[in-house]
Specification:
The chain is an alpha+beta fold. The protein is built from four helices and two strands, in the order αααββα. The chain starts with a helix and ends with a helix.
Amino acid sequence: MAVLAVTCPEKFLSWGPSGYLIVLSTRDELALRQLADRLPASVGCARFHEPDFGGELTAVAVFDTPELSGRLSSLPLAFSDPQPLHNALCLRRERNLRNCSRS
């Protein structure tokens, strides 16, 4: 949230007392990157890259604005189906093990 506050200070300050945070998911990093690239510049978007995963884009934070209307409605709530999360973590673990064995 700190990155989002720095990226969009005006919107962060006017976020309001509710302060809702909704976490959605995409099928993979490419889908997340494409989603972020298609967002209107006026929305304000903070991208989070995970150093532990080689700088992969792991999250995008935006504020709900009229420009976003309907653009995220097709995304499922994150962690609503634990199997894809488990599969993604297993794939990352395998990739990390392969990278370590090459060193």
